[in-house]
Amino acid sequence: MESKLNLYINTLQSENTKKAYRRNIESYLNTCDAITLESYLTWTATIASESGATQYQKIMAVRGFIGFLFDLGEIDSETYMKIKKQRTPKVNNAKKLPLNAEQVNAIVRQARTPREKAMLMVLFHTGMRIGELLNIKLSDINAEGVIKVVGKGNKFRYCYINDETMEAIKDYLNVRKESEYNNLFIGNQGKPMQEQNFNKTIKLLAERAGIDVEALNFSCHSTRHTTISILAEKGVTMPVLQEIAGHADIRTTKRYIDNNPMAAREAIMGLSF
Questions:
Q1: Residues 185-196: what's their mean pLDDT?
Q2: Quick one: residue 190, left, alpha or beta (phi over 0 = left, psi -120 to 50 = alpha)?
Q3: Which residue of 32, 99, 202, 205 has the fewest C-beta atoms within 10 A of its own C-beta?
């Protein structure tokens, strides 16, 4: 099992995530002789006294590994589905957890159309609000990957996207329906997309990616929270994060960072002298 665990850990990107996932998965494997629903339930019972946020992080790590083993054919579909259907702890909304890079990639991979992929990549790579995304006009984006965004109070700022995201937008534009509207993203009927419709879509894609949307109270806004949190983890300064997010008050930006209860723990765990 150690070799399979190493293979799985190597699929992850963030070093902090690798350390946390290995620690949590090993804590599960040390309590069982085989991966079964019974061993999974026994293990979750041992962490039941911990906070909902901590339980969620540990359970997502273990479920990710179990899903990896299922893809390899190491466990049967019945066992996998029984474990997958188990409820995860509800995370307090005041301490809503952002996604990690692996979960973001998993959601993007679930995109069914070029439009869905482009919208997801723009959201996750810019941290813009869903309303800002849906209001982007064709003339607001240039070939260099700079998007003019109109935010709250009709204040505008510039968001920047990487080459991969720009390619996703180009792929979408190649199949974009003709429309009398100048919005970048339009629906199947040629009209501007509605926020509530895309919110349903992104929840569906998240569920297919194995994200417990109920436990995280997941929505389009979660993409914004995730982007800001991941950038903060990479060392981006608070004023720059404020500019990216389009926050008038830096205290609003700070709340996004403070709402990640695992950040301090991971920082201490990785400390060495």
A1: 87
A2: left
A3: 32
